[in-house]
Amino acid sequence: MGIIIDLTKAQAITKDRLRAERAPLLTALDVQYQRAQEDGRDTTIIISEKQRLRDVTKLADKASEYEGLFRESAIAFRKASPKLTGMCLNCGIKTKGAYCSADCREDWERIQRMKRIGRRHDERRN
Ligand SMILES: [Zn+2]
Predict the structure, then answer these.
(1) How far is the centre of ligand 1, averaged over its atoms, from the C-alpha of 34 (Å)?
(2) CA–CA separation, 14 vs 16, rounded Å?
(3) 20 C-alpha to center of ligand 1: Å?
């Protein structure tokens, strides 16, 4: 019983935290979106990043245990906010967003996923 109540509370707290953390990211994406539209650039990546940020709180609802709650929301956040360096994270081409194309983003995410799986593997061994 106690565990269920605590998890509900933890979910609410986590969701509040996620909302606060994503607010400035969403604002930044709105600016990027507007500029991309003005320049006639593809906005697909920006739109999907925005959607992903909106979906971040859904992960908190789905979590059935503490560990999952924090782990999943942390992973989602890392995924949702790649560093903007002025270059495509995947191929290094100059770009305003994190990636120069949807293909590059997919490649990059695949690599990150592989790294994560590898890390989990190491943790289990230790
Ligand atoms: Zn690229």
Answers:
(1) 21
(2) 5
(3) 30
Task: State which amino acid sits at residue 77.
Answer: F
Q: Which pLDDT tens digit goes with each residue over 59-118? A: 777 766 666 666 666 666 666 556 677 788 888 888 877 888 888 888 888 877 776 666
Cα of 36 vs centre of ligand 1, distance in Å, is 17
Amino acid code (one letter) for 114: M
Taking CA atoms, 24 is separated from 30, 50, 83, in Å, by 10, 12, 14
Residue 116 Cα to ligand 1 midpoint, Å, equals 21
Give residue-wise pLDDT tens across range 14-55: 888 888 888 888 888 888 889 889 989 888 888 888 888 888
Alpha-carbon distances, residue 49 vs 42, 44, 101 (angstroms)? 13, 9, 13
pTM of structure: 0.50
Q: In the chain, what are the domain boundaries? A: 1-81, 84-126
- Ion ligand 1 residue ranges (Cβ < 5 Å): 88, 90-91, 93, 100, 104
